[in-house]
Amino acid sequence: MTTHKLLLLPGDGIGIETMAEVERLIAFFNKKSSKNKFETESDLVGGSAYDKHGVAVTDTCVAKAKASDAVIFGAVGGPQWDKVPYAVRPEAGLLRLRKDLDLFANLRPAICYPALADASSLKRELVEGLDIMIVRELTGGVYFGEPKEIVTLEDGQKRAVDTQLYTTREIERIAKVAFDLARKRSNKVHSAEKRNVMKTGVLWNEVVTATHKSYAPDVELQHILADNCAMQLVRNPKQFDVIVTDNLFGDVLSDEAAMATGSLGMLPSASLGAADEKTGKRMALYEPVHGSAPDIAGKGLANPIATIASFGMALRYSCAMTAEADLIDKAIAGVLADGLRTGDIMQPGMQKVGTSEMGSAILAKLENLAA
Ligand code: IPM
Ligand code: MG
Fold this sequence. Notes:
binds 3-isopropylmalic acid; alpha/beta; Isopropylmalate Dehydrogenase; two-stranded antiparallel ribbon; about 40% helix; single chain; globular; binds magnesium ion; 12 helices
């Protein structure tokens, strides 16, 4: 029997509702499996942590995250925290977890479920069968570079600075992740940067090229300017397999790719650290790509699929439970094929359901598939 320690951080807004559905899945697997057992603990993060502790994540919570096999994260933020000091805003909790756990590799798969091809804002033929993996560098770049400040100048004007910064090592390790993933997929990597404008883009391009030569000459590599990549993603998204890019471009391009699949409510992600040299274990955090959606929070309307699929990625990448992860993916595809839809993916003639109904339907499918 293997025990997997999960830290559940629902956060704010719809994170709380979608995590509740994941907890039902955890209970299901604990009942079903004699080989794997989940031990869970929960904590506050984001605005809810700020309300109780005055910070967006506590040291205790970070320590628990480090000691867990995987963190399952909901979402953070909401208008009620718009005025809190910048250093303790809800997003700071997530950013600290990423940085302190050194989760440099953010995997954001954009898969178009066949049943949802018509829910995309792009034409069916462009997105049917779409399967892209965005590999976003997550602990460097303009998110963390110093200086990062707003200063008042002598004439009373203000000047804001963010610093985009990358080192060879940071680029090389994320490029390797992309090449490794491509080998298990269609063997093609696009590396997106702005070498025509940014020094970090020049270095990114050089290091990815060198890493390709020494580490993965068998993989097809294409360099693409990030703005062109954004355009190509809506023009012909199926030309992509793996896209590797920096923190900020990855943030933007992954939202764009998500929408091509039908809804932001569908996309999971995995944020992984380096493998421990002795144990092979990686620190890991799994979260939906969507945010806390304050407009629908607390109403039972949110789509739980991205959070459930994030839990599925935890089974795949942190728990060596590939069969169970496949079951979750099949269950999700199944309920969609049955015509069940939350509001964000609603289409004419389909059956509109809420968060817990969607969760129940996925559980029922799992029961059937596992029987
Ligand atoms: C994401 C989010 C975060 C980011 C926010 C919540 C800080 O947009 O995970 O894509 O910008 O990285
Ligand atoms: Mg984002």
